[in-house]
């Protein structure tokens, strides 16, 4: 087995408490939270865990799996994993995860999470995309007062994850929750026209959260557009395989940006309602600097391919080494990726709270 770099001080370890068969090809993995580590694993509905999975070829691989547990009701963490064809991580988890096993993880992260649960929602999921949506749904029903319309697409009835839980939630909240099951075996693939017609009575001014395969997400976004939805209120969750090793220890490059160049920049960083004043070496991404100082900034891939470390550039100048996930509109609004961000001015102000 290939040796892997030393694990970073930010890496945590969890013990599997239970493995639940959800469908023939999907399992939920329940983790105990160690006593005294509750703050490390505080999360908001819609976020995910990054798991370190053993690999004989590379030593380990990192995979992100959404939390299907709810922070409002559950004292344990639960991720739900569905096998994918050729998917090394999902097949390893479904074949090998068992109670008592320890796994290295990163802290919960992700921005696919509502800022306010006390509002009306549209939730749209397909297949294993139900996982973060289920966390949002349960949390909104427990803490909010709004009405929720949920459309959940699957190939057939046997593939419906959380079938009984959804039935129970609908029976417990008949005035607040409408669940629409779309089965490909019965109705074929959904179209933008049909989705638009279904959602037209409720789409205006509601936040919509979408998770599932790319073709499904494009279809429902087109349907929402046809329904008159405000496209600025649409949120999507996109996962891609993580390259590299986000669990590896941080290496700080404190050499000047150029020979004879300036020393480190200064950064003011707002995170979790705290303000940090730090020196920022000009050749080191902001995320690495924060982690090296023990500041628990959110992240997952460390390669600019996910949105877990997204933050707002409030003042000063900075540039990203690579951006594989933020769209032009988000960049225009000031969003940047902390794992790819280098300072260009002497002082930069960043916020993770907006």
Widest sheet: strand ordering: 4-3-6-1-2-5
Structural class: alpha/beta
How does CATH name the architecture of the largest domain? 3-Layer(aba) Sandwich
**Would you list the SSEs in sequence order as H and E?**
EEEEEHEEHEHEHHEHEEEHEEHEEE
**Broad CATH class of the largest domain:** Alpha Beta
Alpha plus pi helix count: 8
What is the overall silhouette?
Answer: globular
Average the pLDDT over all residues and give the rounded result.
92
Could you name the CATH homologous superfamily of the largest domain?
A: Nucleotide-binding domain of ferredoxin-NADP reductase (FNR) module
Largest sheet geometry: 6 strands, antiparallel
N-to-C terminal Cα separation, in Å?
43 Å
Strand content: 25-35%
Q: In percent, how helical is the residue content?
A: 10-25%
How many DSSP-defined strands?
18
Q: Which runs of at least 5 residues are low in confidence (pLDDT < 50)?
A: none
Radius of gyration: 21 Å
CATH domain topology of the largest domain: Rossmann fold
Number of domains: 3
Domain 2Fe-2S ferredoxin-type: 265-354
Cofactor: FAD
Keywords: 2Fe-2S, FAD, Flavoprotein, Iron, Iron-sulfur, Metal-binding, Oxidoreductase
Organism: Dietzia aerolata
What are the SSEs and their pairings?
Layout: E1 12-23, E2 26-32, E3 48-55, E4 59-66, E5 77-82, H1 88-96, E6 102-109, E7 121-126, H2 130-143, E8 148-154, H3 163-172, E9 177-183, H4 184-187, H5 192-199, E10 207-211, H6 214-227, E11 234-237, E12 265-271, E13 274-280, H7 286-292, E14 310-315, E15 318-320, H8 328-332, E16 335-337, E17 341-343, E18 347-351
Parallel strand pairs: 7-8, 7-10, 8-9, 10-11, 12-18
Antiparallel strand pairs: 1-2, 1-6, 2-5, 3-4, 3-6, 12-13, 14-16, 14-18, 15-17
Helix pairs in contact: 5-6
């Amino acid at each position: 087995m290939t040796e892997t770099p030393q694990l970073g001080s930010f890496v945590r370890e969890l013990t599997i408490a239970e493995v639940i068969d959800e469908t023939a090809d999907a399992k939920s993995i329940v983790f105990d939270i160690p006593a005294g580590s509750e703050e490390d694993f505080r999360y908001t509905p819609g976020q995910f865990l990054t798991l370190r999975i053993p690999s004989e070829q590379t030593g380990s691989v990192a995979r992100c799996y959404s939390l299907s547990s709810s922070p409002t009701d559950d004292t344990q963490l639960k991720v739900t994993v569905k096998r994918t064809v050729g998917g090394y991580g999902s097949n390893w988890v479904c074949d090998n995860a068992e109670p008592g096993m320890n796994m290295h993880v990163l802290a919960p992260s992700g921005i696919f999470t509502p800022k306010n649960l006390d509002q009306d929602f549209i939730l749209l999921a397909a297949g294993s995309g139900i996982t973060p949506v289920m966390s949002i749904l349960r949390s909104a029903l427990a803490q909010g007062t709004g009405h929720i319309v949920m459309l959940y697409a699957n190939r057939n009835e046997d593939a419906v994850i959380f079938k009984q839980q959804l039935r129970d939630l609908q029976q417990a909240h008949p005035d607040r929750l409408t669940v629409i099951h779309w089965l490909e075996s019965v109705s074929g693939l959904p179209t933008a026209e049909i989705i638009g017609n279904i959602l037209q009575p409720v789409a205006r001014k509601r936040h919509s959260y979408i998770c599932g395969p790319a073709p499904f997400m494009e279809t429902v976004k087109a349907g929402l557009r046809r329904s008159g939805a405000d496209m600025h209120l649409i949120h999507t969750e996109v996962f891609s395989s993580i390259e590299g090793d986000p669990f590896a220890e941080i290496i700080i490059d404190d050499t000047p940006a150029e020979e004879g160049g300036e020393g480190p920049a200064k950064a003011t960083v707002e995170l979790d309602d705290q303000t940090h004043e730090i020196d920022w070496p000009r050749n080191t991404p902001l995320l690495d600097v924060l982690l090296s100082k023990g500041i628990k900034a959110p992240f997952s891939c460390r390669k600019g391919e996910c949105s877990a470390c997204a933050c707002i550039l409030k003042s000063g100048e900075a540039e990203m080494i690579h951006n594989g996930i933020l769209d032009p509109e988000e960049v225009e609004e000031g969003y940047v990726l902390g794992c790819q961000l280098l300072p260009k001015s002497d002082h930069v102000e960043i916020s993770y709270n907006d």
